[in-house]
Amino acid sequence: MAYSEKVNEHYNNPRNIGTLDKADKNVGTGLVGAPECGDVMRLQIAVNEEGVIEDAKFKTFGCGSAIASSSLATEWLKGKSVNQALEIDNMDIVEELALPPVKIHCSVLAEDAIKSAINDYRIKQGLAEI
Amino acid sequence: MPSLPIYLDNNATTKMDPRVLDTMIPFFTENFGNAASRNHSFGWTAEEAVDYAREQVANLIGANPKEIIFTSGATESDNLAVKGVFEMYAAKGNHIITVNTEHKAVLDACKHVEKLGAEVTYLEPNLDGLIDLNELEAAITEKTILISIMYANNEIGVVQPIREIGELARKKGIVFHSDATQAVGKIPVDVNADHIDLMSFTGHKMYGPKGVGALYVRRKNPRIKVTAQMDGGGHERGMRSGTLNVPGIVGFGKACEICMNEMESDAARISEMRDYLEAELTKLEETYVNGSTEHRLPTITNISFKYIEGEGLMMGVKDLAVSSGSACTSASLEPSYVLKNLGLDDDLAHSSLRFGLSRYTTKEEIDYAINHVREAVLKLREMSPLWEMFKEGIDLKSVEWQEH
């Protein structure tokens, strides 16, 4: 299967690979997927006092589309408020990366990872899960 | 620097030997006759060429030329064997024994006859990919009419104890079919020494053309018959109707002849490169060879690079044409059933690459492949959360994963 140019570009030059301190109360961590399914994404956000995502990092075990989806997600998250981040929809990722139907689950996983990271952050802040 | 991309997917298909092409060309143009035309020289020329090829093919497997039924390829041969035996021996029984790591051509033909009343036992191989002969013997019943077990596996290259299986089948009076698509031309195969009754193989896995294969059908001790699955002019002793693919058959014959003469030296050279590739790649941490390394084709290695996903890895080794057990490309998202049926954990199955070498593979290509794979593995592990967790000493089996 041929990948789109954008998937290739993210795969070859992934943005924001790395690890934030998951014990930090301003850091939210989302770990989604399962090794048996062939993809696991870990997405982390660091949120400042104004509720703005200052930094975002990812690590992904998966195919090129999964790596590109999470790389793109971190790029989009940076500078967004937590509430704005919640608006990121998997179909935006599908469109941006021109993912074929069999790869839509990669974008769903990325959206889940964002939500999961935000929830982790909210719990640490004493807020209710969304 | 070798020319890129490097082809290491020779279990899918091989490049045709130019010597094969040379022998085929006249049979497309000036010698275009139908081998079944008995009344003019065009037909005679074609028939003569087919007869000669039949000898070349038969010689490679120690058979009599009359025992070679030409088909369109191994898939057709497998279908003819399984369905043809099921119909021909219906009066004797309806039980078939096979293995769950067979090629889909055998497994799906078995599924087909199950719908028509066959009982099929699917043996499970050990972790090394080999079947247990005691389990095979225990599975035999009075109704067993066919044992179908592949010679060598297409994903891991494991070579089954064919001779012992053949002996057992012969002793019990059961027809023994072997799908030898990956083995013929790569390792010595002798239908008599191995007690094989039916055997499928094909041209394009042994440097011959695509679209032509054969089913070996034993004529003596015992005489085996299969019911034709294609009705028509009664070609190929009535077992496979259809105008013969003369250029293809001529090329297939030539490919067999070349393999007969060069198999031994090819195998020595190729296995040395394969062993080197395997030794270098398994120097990487958490890297495992799948299937038996003792009973295996000389041309293949299947390696799992733990904590990275095979399709992602294939994208990282874009200068190599290889294949992966990760079926991420398929809608099912299921990893290779062959690796799963060995009892391999799904994460290892997802992390595998198959390297298939050929007589055209060079040391320079292998050196390039080693570096290319190594770089990709290191890069992908840097971005793998599983690798990080493994390095932190977290047992991944203890993690509650959020499956989606």
What does this structure look like?
The complex is a heterodimer of chains A (130) and B (404). Chain A has helices at 5-12, 64-77, 82-85, 90-97, 104-124; strands at 27-34, 39-47, 53-61. In chain A, helix 1 packs across helix 2. Chain A contains five helices and three strands, in the order H-E-E-E-H-H-H-H. Chain A is α+β, with helices and mostly antiparallel strands and 130 residues long. Chain A has a three-stranded antiparallel beta sheet. Chain A has one domain: Sufe protein. Chain: A, CATH 3.90.1010. In chain A, 42% of the residues lie in helices and 20% in strands. Chain B has 404 residues and is α/β, with parallel strands linked by helices. Chain B has two domains: 6-11 and 264-392, Aspartate Aminotransferase, domain 1 (Alpha-Beta Complex); 18-259, Aspartate Aminotransferase, domain 2 (3-Layer(aba) Sandwich), CATH 3.40.640. In chain B, 38% of the residues lie in helices and 13% in strands. In chain B, the strands form three sheets. A seven-stranded mixed beta sheet of chain B has the order 2-8-7-6-5-3-4, sandwiched between helices. In chain B, strands 9-10-13-12 form a four-stranded antiparallel beta sheet. A two-stranded parallel sheet of chain B has the order 1-11. In chain B, strand 5 (144-148), helix 6 (162-172) and strand 6 form a beta-alpha-beta unit. In chain B, helix 1 runs antiparallel to helix 7 (246-281). Chain B is globular, with a radius of gyration of 22 Å. The model of chain B has no long low-confidence stretch (mean pLDDT 95). Classes of the chains: A alpha+beta (130), B alpha/beta (404). The interface between A and B is medium-sized, with 34 and 30 residues.
